[in-house]
Design a protein that fits this description.
The protein has 2 domains: 286 residues, Transposase Inhibitor Protein From Tn5, Chain A, domain 1 (Alpha-Beta Complex); 47 residues. The protein contains 12 helices and 14 strands. It is 36% helix and 23% strand. The strands form 2 sheets. Strands 1, 2, 3, 4, 5, 6, 7, 8, 9 and 10 form a 10-stranded mixed sheet that branches. The chain has a 4-stranded mixed sheet with strand order 11-12-14-13, with no helix packed on it. The chain is of the alpha+beta class.
Length: 365
């Protein structure tokens, strides 16, 4: 309610007042789902104009599913696995994709059903092709994202992939029986990793539904009792690079947690997936706005969590002066103001057409 009653925030948005949550929920129900994709593409194009570096990325992506849990008694909703509760429960399955270079979500889909969840990865590929005119170069995901048959289709499109393979006893036994000279010790470049020197067994294996041989890495010495198996259609990268790249995919789970914590992604606004889909697109937009703030400020703030950016760079209070030609926002004295001044926010002179062509200017006390 503090944000809904904030006069300055409403002024910045060009509204008389910020809509309450119930109003926002009603708004998402009025949105035509057919325009959501076009709207999202236009937004990312606009963001790329603000930071051209975003347009140059888009080579490697991290993919994962997340279940938005539902605590009501809607019998028509499907049950999905909720990782934080380690159980299956009613909810809406969402498919999220993060750009590994820019660390921002570039795609979200809340209309995926259990029966066609393995096709979600192809929905993203098609969406990315429509948006950019090219296919993604590399996809990194968990074993439950898709099937071996769908991996074959990805390989046929000449898209590189790295994925975790579900292990079973015969796989583990076969790997353990290999001679010691077939195992090689590798050094991982991630300096924050405790187990930096695992042993790796590289083999060519065949998968059911996959026409060609695929490269398999059996990994031992990562702090687990069981072996870890990775499969990839990439033949050139060294095993250490493959392992490091998959390890970075795990960061998507931290980003999802940050989105849940700050943007309340798990707060269902409806039991209709299409409405949740619109909410997800707005969440992606909000997250990208904070990423743009962190990128502009620099000083490693581009790596900070959204809550940290909000706490350190967004003031709780500010004085607003209205003149005939300008809206002057005076920031109070705060510890991190020099970061904003170094990013030249005090030189901002932004035209606001919907407020009688006034311009926005920022000053620091």
């Amino acid at each position: 309610m503090s944000e809904a009653l904030d006069e300055g925030l409403a002024l910045f948005a060009g509204l008389n007042a910020i809509p309450k949550r119930s109003s926002l929920t009603e708004y998402t129900g009025r949105c035509d789902p057919h325009f959501t994709q076009e709207f999202t593409h236009a937004w990312f194009d606009a963001a790329a104009r603000l930071d051209p570096g975003l347009k140059e990325k888009g080579e490697s992506f991290d993919l994962d599913f997340h279940t938005i849990p539902y605590h009501g008694d809607q019998a028509l909703m499907e049950k999905h696995y909720v990782s934080k509760r380690s159980r299956r429960q009613l909810g809406i399955l969402t498919f999220l994709v993060r750009d590994a270079s820019t660390r921002i979500f570039t795609y979200a889909n809340a209309t995926v059903h259990k029966k066609d969840h393995s096709m979600a990865i192809h929905y993203f590929i098609e969406d990315w092709k429509q948006r950019t005119g090219s296919l993604p170069s590399e996809l990194v995901f968990d074993s439950g994202v898709t099937t071996y048959a769908q991996l074959a289709k990805i390989h046929a499109q000449k898209i590189g992939f790295i994925t975790l393979r579900k292990r079973h006893k015969s796989m583990v036994q076969a790997a353990r029986e290999q001679p010691a000279n077939q195992w090689n010790s590798v050094t991982l470049t991630n300096i924050g990793r405790k187990y930096r020197h695992p042993r790796v067994l590289v083999q060519k294996v065949r998968l059911k539904g996959y026409p060609d041989e695929v490269r398999q890495l059996a990994i031992d010495g990562l702090g687990r009792d069981q072996l870890m198996f990775l499969i990839t259609n990439q033949t050139e990268p060294a095993p250490a690079k493959i392992i490091d790249r998959y390890a970075r995919r795990m960061m998507i789970e931290n980003v999802i947690s940050d989105t849940i914590d700050f943007f309340h992604m798990d707060a269902l606004s409806a039991t209709v997936p299409m409405k949740i889909h619109v909410d997800l697109q707005l969440t992606l937009i909000a997250g990208l706005l904070y990423r743009l703030l962190g990128i502009r400020v620099g000083e490693r703030k581009e790596l900070a969590e959204t809550r940290t950016l909000f706490r350190e760079l967004i003031p709780k209070r500010a004085k607003i002066h209205l003149t005939e030609k300008e809206i002057i926002v005076e920031y109070p004295r705060r510890t991190h103001n020099p970061l904003l001044m170094n990013a030249e926010y005090h030189k901002v002179n932004l035209p606001i057409p919907w407020l009688d062509n006034k311009s926005l200017r920022i000053e620091f006390a």
